[in-house]
Amino acid sequence: MKPHVLVAVNGFTEKHMERIRQVLSGWATMEQIDEETPEAVYREKIGRSQIVVGWPKAEWIAGSPVRLVQLGSVGYDAFLGNKLQERTTFTLCNASGVMSVAVAEHLIAMMFALTRRISHHIRDMSKHKWSRQSEYEEVYGSTACIVGVGGIGTEIARRLRALGVRTIGVRREIGESHPYMDEMYLSTQLKEAIMHADHVILILPGNALTEKLFDYKMFASMKEGAYFYNLARGSIVDENVLHAALISGRLKGAGLDVFEVEPLPKGSPLWEMDNVIITPHSGGRSVKEFDRFCHLVLNNLMNYRDGKPFLNQVNL
Q: What residue stretches are annotated with the D-isomer specific 2-hydroxyacid dehydrogenase NAD-binding domain (predicted)?
């Protein structure tokens, strides 16, 4: 029997879907549904599929005939700690690399907006206010610590090095030297790594090991007057402690794209802070995002067909 492919990605255009149909021609069937399809209908269709492309919930896959899930996100937190890892016939692939360039550019934009006080001037524009800030900084010659050196962290480091920034990387295993890192530290050395950084950038997965990793002790280990950026997961940061560090001046500013609760509640004090830039979990968004994602999907569909190793396979 031919495998059935379920595609639930609203960002795919008809051109993307035609490319997928061409790859599947002759060996698989396909159905496209809306991402917001009601759960009961979505699950019924999953129950007739061997491959799912999109953002299905992990519990919807359990007990289904699905053999491959190609996520449209880098994060796969919800698929950890369940019985899917016990299924030897099941494979999960994420979208690593699809959003790396966009997130890296988003980080650079935040960094310049904070150091050059652009965010202040944008607020002044609404008041027709002509007012220079007392201080403008340069990123040139500063030190940045990238916590999480995967595809996104590498793209960030590549750009920072070109800007004359000294780069420090943190990850679980160091292995060979990194082409865009001046120094590398193990995750167990995180406090030491962030101690002298002017910019601390989080690009970590959200899981039990990283839950509230940036707590009072971690922020206290940072250099006074440093900038903090979270483009990873809101669960990694204790927002109350972050707010206190910003209020006290311990941190000079923050660029935040992810939060403990999303959308960020209207009552959050972070909204009112002049030294904070808030974006709505949009760091990975790009006009090229779904072209890259489609390319990944096409490759993994052909790998499924040909029995070859998958790209971005997750170790559950």
A: 108-283
Element (H, E) at 253: strand 251-256
Per the CB < 8 A criterion, the answer to whether 237 and 202 are in contact is yes
Domains of the chain: 4-98+287-306 (3.40.50.720), 100-278 (3.40.50.720)
**Tens-binned pLDDT, residue by residue, of the chain (316 aa):** 899 999 999 999 999 999 999 999 999 999 999 999 999 999 999 999 999 999 999 999 988 999 999 999 998 888 887 778 778 899 999 999 999 999 999 999 999 999 999 999 999 999 999 999 999 999 999 999 999 999 999 999 999 999 999 999 999 998 888 999 999 999 999 999 999 999 999 999 888 899 999 999 999 999 999 999 999 999 999 999 999 999 999 999 999 999 999 999 999 999 999 999 999 999 999 999 999 999 999 999 999 999 999 999 998 8
Rounded CA-CA distance 99/92 in Å is 18
* Sheet of 226-230, strands arranged across: 183-186, 166-171, 143-147, 199-202, 226-230, 251-256, 276-278
Report pTM. 0.93
Q: E-assigned strands of 124-195?
A: 143-147, 166-171, 183-186
Query: Distance (Å, rounded) from C-alpha 226 to C-alpha 153?
Result: 19
